[in-house]
Design goal:
Layout lengths: L19 H10 L3 H8 L6 H8 L4 E3 L14 E3 L2 E3 L3 E3 L12 H11 L4 E3 L17 E5 L5 H13 L5 E4 L9 H5 L40 H10 L4 E6 L2 H9 L4 E4 L13 H11 L6 E4 L5 H9 L4 E4 L1 H33 L12 E3 L1
Parallel strand pairs: 4-11, 5-6, 6-7, 7-8, 8-9, 9-10, 10-11
Antiparallel strand pairs: 1-12, 2-3
Length: 367
Amino acid sequence: MNPSTPLPPLTQIPAYLQTVADYEIEAQKHLSDMVWQYLQGGSMDEISVRDNLDQFKQIHLLPRMLKDLTQGNTTCELFGQHYPHPIFLAPIGHQQQFHPDAEAASALAAEVLGSNIILSTFTNTDLRSLKQDNPYKWFQLYWQGDREKSLALVKLAEQHNFKALVITVDSPHTGIRDRERRVFFHLPEGMQHPHTPAHIPLPELQAGEHPVFHGLMKIAPTWDDIAWIVQQTSLPVILKGIINPHDALLAIQQGVQGLIVSNHGGRVLDTCIPPLTALQLIKKVVPEDFPLLYDGGIRRGSDIFKAMALGASAVLVGRPYIYGLASAGALGVAHVLKILKEEFEITMALMGTATLNDISEEYIFHK
């Protein structure tokens, strides 16, 4: 269990922190029990949370030997831009819960490690304060209940040199999170969210109206709204939380330029299909070069390799970098990214793959 008073963040990295799993153990020491349960928890029975981790165990690696790897590198290209490696920071809101420097620390670490950061709508750090000329930053939009409010955030992101727009579409309603309810989870009083209220205001219910279907679902985005946003912005629009191949095809019809295959870390709909399975289904129906990013359960460099082999163009990590943030701020996030990057590079070398383009299904064996 957590100490009754969480320890202050570390100011240097001790030798015992070698893996993401080590950071997970460390992070718990630096957070209150309420915040820890929020971070670790998922929806209902948390089957999807476990599945996201377990799915990687069902896939074995099938390496090739004696290849010439002297030209090896991890660079990838997305939407006409080069990224030094395919390990991106998933959008996670309210990061001040985990460290006083919040998203500013995550952004700094991401910049130093050449990692693309996707800043959440629910950031505690103003998007205008992220380094203007850092080329590796995207903005994540939670639909604001109407088009004008949503577009205002998109235009702000454009002005401040964000390179793409990620619209999260899989949580028009919060999942039922038993773990959070048991610890009476709440955000701190007075926590600043510079771009939106911590909770988007709900429509007033009339007599006889349903709190779910006439509440949050009434202001949730539809395909028409997505098509409209695509028309309004010069940024590539990427949908996060697409799981069904039918939706993948609909997204392409609306002009969406990429997808993040994700079940929201198991936090919204429990027993939702694992994203690694969804990635394989979606890969079969979209054009060969259509960008598919993968999100969910990555804890090792070998997991990154498996996701890339099954069709991912890049991967997002969520909880792992928050473990780093809670443990040691920017230093911890940077170290977690460094660990994953090195593990991935060594996996590539041992697999006989010099570049991301070499990584394919030929290198994996399904149990």
